[in-house]
Design a protein that fits this description.
The chain is elongated and about 85 Å long. The chain has eleven helices and eleven strands. It is α/β, with parallel strands linked by helices. Helix 1 crosses helix 3 and helix 2 crosses helix 3. Strands 3, 4, 5, 6, 9, 10 and 11 form a seven-stranded mixed sheet that branches. The C terminus is likely disordered. Keywords: DNA-binding, Transcription, Transcription regulation. Belongs to the LysR transcriptional regulatory family. It comes from Halomonas pelophila.
Length: about 300
């Protein structure tokens, strides 16, 4: 029969290296420690210790059992803390977002985790479709996507917005649609939609992104500006991508009359109650952006 106490005794034995010290730490008798180990060996059907007089070394099965036991108790603690939805400073946060927002949101959350060691963070970078599928499957509690989601098992609400930037090489001297067409565009997932929206709002003669030479493509938005910095084309990206890019000094954002934004939405399973720790992280990030951008990234009114 599975007994967590046997695993706990075994962990302590491995860590102390002594039956006597294990008994003292767990306030047991030494024969009691030996009995727990024998019971665990009987349950697993494997010898866990190679006994050499009063000393012992772990067998291969023993090493694997020890690794499993550590993981077992760590997951137990995470699960126990995750049941407390009212806790602000402990529990697991499982979320996913596209790279555009994740380039800044993930480091922000890690900073919060440093200040609140009881938090654990599992953060995935993915595309909208993958994020929705993972929230549906329960692999994430929260998804952040760039398009509204309509699904009977999911709730979707506006959360945040970031300005879009038309980014060109630092030495680019043009300013018209023809100059951009001569330069060509660097693509990424969703990039054509962003570029089309921003160009349509600012250039009356814009027709379609299909008229622009495609000079390259990457599925990692964080790498787009590398190509732009090399003079290979232009791109339209979220301001977050520009602000976090190591190439921001080798590129520039053109000043445009009409602003456009990347809109971000929160996706959760229908009826799920979002723990307070998520609410604090999301509100904290938005507040930070408001201070940084002096009005950019404002809250969307629902």
């Amino acid at each position: 029969m599975f007994n967590a106490r046997y695993f706990r005794t075994f962990i302590t034995l491995v860590e102390t290296g002594s039956f006597t010290r294990t008994a003292r730490r767990l306030e047991m008798t030494q024969p009691g420690v030996s009995q727990h180990v024998r019971k665990l060996e009987q349950y697993l059907g494997k010898s866990l210790l190679d006994r050499q007089g009063r000393r012992f070394v772990l067998t291969e099965a023993g090493r694997r059992a020890y690794d499993y036991a550590l993981k077992l108790f760590a997951e137990h603690e995470q699960f126990r803390h995750s049941l407390d939805n009212d806790s602000l400073d402990c529990g697991e946060c499982r979320l996913a977002s596209p790279g555009s927002i994740g380039l800044m949101l993930y480091p922000f959350i890690l900073g919060q985790q440093q200040m609140q060691p009881g938090l654990t963070v599992s953060y995935s970078f993915a595309f909208n479709g993958e994020i929705v599928a993972d929230v549906l499957a329960g692999r994430h509690d929260l998804g952040i996507v760039t398009e509204p989601v309509r699904h009977p098992e999911l709730d979707c609400e506006p959360w945040h917005q970031e300005p879009l930037c038309l980014v060109v090489p630092a030495d680019f001297a043009g300013n018209g649609l023809g100059d951009l067409m001569a330069l060509g565009v660097i693509g990424y997932p969703g990039g054509n939609d962003h570029a089309g929206a921003l160009l349509r709002a600012n250039f009356p003669d814009f027709r379609s992104m299909s008229h622009f030479p495609r000079q390259g493509f990457t599925n990692e938005v964080g790498m787009v500006l590398d190509a732009v910095a090399r003079g290979l084309g232009f791109a339209v990206v979220s301001r977050v991508v520009l602000e976090t890019s190591p190439w921001q000094r080798q590129v520039k954002a053109l000043s445009l009359a009409q602003a456009c934004h990347e809109f971000l939405y929160l996706v959760t399973r229908t009826g799920a109650h979002m723990p307070r720790r998520y609410v604090r992280l999301l509100e904290g990030y938005r507040e930070q952006r408001r201070h940084e951008r002096l009005g950019y990234g404002e809250v969307i009114e629902s």
